[in-house]
Write a structure and sequence with these properties.
The complex is a heterodimer of chains A (279) and B (306). With 279 residues, chain A is of the alpha/beta class. Chain A has a domain of 166 residues: 3-Layer(aba) Sandwich (Rossmann fold), CATH 3.40.50.300. Helix content of chain A is 32%, strand content 25%. In chain A, β10 and β11 form a beta hairpin. Chain B is mainly alpha-helical. Helices cover 78% and strands 0% of the residues of chain B. Chain B contains 13 helices and no strands. The chains are: A alpha/beta (279), B mainly alpha (306). At the A-B interface, β5 of A face α7, α8 and α11 of B.
Chain lengths: 279, 306
């Protein structure tokens, strides 16, 4: 796998370096000295329950959330490459908005520039290429507000990718998808990461759908994080240290079940959800 | 053609002024209105028309050109709304409603003072419901300057405006400074509202802002097309309204003409209703074509498979 060979080869500068990043919101430490790096071509999962600080961390990486301590470095986009592609958790569009799915993708290049974009054959070809890459040709001319959750997700990914970013951030892309659409999106992202050497950082509250493709993960609980490969992080001792009390990690048929005991306010939400997944 | 254009329509200086001011304000209002509708800020747009009314009535009280007052009122209102910057829809509507009420209250005070102290009884009608036939020709250059400025903002900022209207976070992630884009939009909106207050009156300028834009959004498949169609519809309704009002002098023997604002806003409203009907019919037809399970389609499918 490309990501593995990268880590074994000579050290490359990371695309994203988060160094002791802290965020305090309304007196609450939402992020507490979080550190990790992401290299080109790596697929990294940002795992944690609701309220663990995933969205805050993504917003901090985007520069939309000011840090109270530490720093975050993103490798600059060079030439035609934009630094960060972003797929927000929820984009609500009016079903009657007169805008085709392909127009949404096209806004990913030059959506931040002044003036009108005159029709150009090169750009149209580029849009078609991206639509094909995410498997969206079938609904490219539909109104973007009328797409299903999975279809819109693909369009947003194409929108984020068309600027050729080196880092792709996705906020809970699987949250509103059924199991098979979610699986398709995960495979699509994995292919993009390896083929185009894009660093993918994806947040999720559920680790199992990502297990086949994860190179590394950042596990967030109460604003604190541990990072490493799945085998390094999803262990009883490591997660117990992170949560501050005993955590059981069960492996059943290639799936992972994290059982967070009583006493944790956010862990209780994880356990039954995972249990249902495994059962 | 004399049945359509009453004698004197094309030679009247008043009509010329009205056509120019009406045309410019229609284009500006309609093209900015497209973004106002997309952003779901029609109510906020309406609040600006009320602060414009306050500005306009203050201007007539101290005897300066009402357009200056309209523009100042709208710009101040826009600035206040940006300063408050409420993102939560419910508190935004609340703040908007309270500002709206207060500014109309102030306008009523200014208009009362104007009518009691200077005996210009027409002021209330002119400020609230428009004065396009009695506007001084010297106002035309001002209208054109601010109109061009507003259209330039929309043309130059088209894609950033669109992206921030769709999703502010997405826009910010692409490197846009969303605050700057919103400020430019609010300025253009304030210009549009100030200008259309001269044409159809402060209270009715919402109609020119929202009506053609909402109609165009129903009729088109792309935002660029919507802006163009909205501008076209704005001009058409405004000029036709002016013509109707002019012609109406001959309809009822001895009666006054119909108010221009009534004619324009009436046309805008009728157009919106008709477009809604057309939209429903075409949507229904499309749904019928798409659904294969409808009666009539089923037998053909079964014969094909056997």
């Amino acid at each position: 796998m490309t990501a593995r060979s990268l880590t074994e080869g000579p050290p490359v500068a990371p695309v994203l370096a988060v160094d002791h990043a802290s965020v305090v919101l309304a007196g609450r430490r939402v992020l507490d000295e979080v550190s990790f790096t992401v290299a080109a071509g790596q697929f990294t999962g940002l795992i944690g329950s609701n309220g663990a600080g995933k969205t805050t961390l993504l917003r901090a990486i985007l520069g939309l959330q000011r840090l109270s301590g530490g720093r975050i470095d993103v490798a600059d986009g060079s030439g035609r490459h934009r630094a960060i592609g972003y797929v927000p958790q929820k984009v609500v569009l009016d079903p009657d908005l007169p805008m085709r799915a392909r127009d949404m993708v096209e806004l990913g290049i030059g959506g931040n520039r002044l003036g009108f974009s005159l029709p150009s054959r090169a750009r149209r070809a580029r849009v078609d290429e991206l639509l094909a890459a995410v498997g969206a040709q079938g609904f490219a001319d539909s109104r973007v507000g009328r797409l299903s959750g999975g279809e819109l997700q693909r369009i947003l990914i194409a929108h984020a990718l068309i600027g050729q970013p080196r880092l792709l951030l996705l906020d809970e892309p699987l949250a509103n998808l059924d199991l098979s659409s979610g699986q398709e999106v995960v495979e699509l992202l994995h292919r993009i990461a390896t083929e185009h050497q894009v660093a993918v950082l994806l947040s999720a509250h559920e680790i199992n759908p990502l297990l086949p493709v994860l190179d590394r993960l950042v596990y967030l609980a109460d604003g604190r994080a541990v990072t490493g490969t799945v085998d390094e992080v999803v262990r009883s001792d490591v997660l117990s240290a992170l949560y501050g009390h005993h955590v059981d990690v069960l492996r059943v048929h290639g799936r992972v079940l994290v059982v967070v005991g009583p006493g944790s306010d956010d862990g209780d939400k994880v356990a039954p959800h995972d249990a249902i997944e495994v059962g | 053609m004399s049945w359509l254009f009453e004698p004197g329509f094309f030679s009247s200086a008043q009509v010329h002024t009205a056509l120019i001011i009406g045309g410019v304000t229609a284009v500006v209002s309609a093209s900015i209105g497209v973004f106002t509708v997309i952003r779901g800020q029609s109510f906020a747009g309406h609040a600006l028309t009320d602060t414009a009314a306050t500005g306009g009535s203050a201007a007539v009280l101290v005897s300066i050109n009402p357009l200056v007052g309209f523009l100042a009122g709208a710009v101040l209102g826009a600035g206040a709304m940006e300063a408050v910057g409420v993102r939560h829809v419910r508190s935004r509507d609340l703040a908007t409603g309270i500002v709206l009420g207060a500014s109309i209250g102030l306008a009523s005070l200014f208009l009362y003072l104007t009518t009691t102290t200077t005996a210009t009884t027409g002021a209330t009608q002119e400020i609230l419901f428009g004065s396009i036939f009695v506007t001084a020709p010297s106002t035309v250059p001002v209208v054109i300057v601010f109109g061009v400025l507003a259209v330039l903002v929309v043309a130059a900022g088209f894609r950033p405006l669109l992206l921030t209207s769709i999703d502010p976070d997405l826009a910010a992630a692409s490197g846009l400074r969303v605050g700057v884009v919103e400020l430019a939009y609010m300025a253009a909106l304030a210009f549009a509202v100030g200008l259309s207050s001269i044409a159809v009156g402060a209270i009715l300028s919402t109609a020119l802002l929202i009506g053609p834009a909402a109609t165009a959004l129903r009729l088109t498949k792309r935002i660029v097309a919507a802006v163009a169609v909205a501008a076209g519809l704005g001009i058409a309704t405004t000029w036709l309204g002016i013509l109707l009002a002019y012609d109406s002098a001959d309809w009822g023997a001895g009666r006054d003409t119909l108010p221009v604002s009534f004619c324009i806003v009436g046309l805008v409203f009728v157009l919106y209703l008709v477009s809604g009907l057309a939209f429903r019919v075409s949507e229904g037809a499309r749904a019928a074509r798409r659904s294969p399970s409808r009666p009539g389609a089923a037998p053909r499918m079964s014969s094909g498979s056997s």
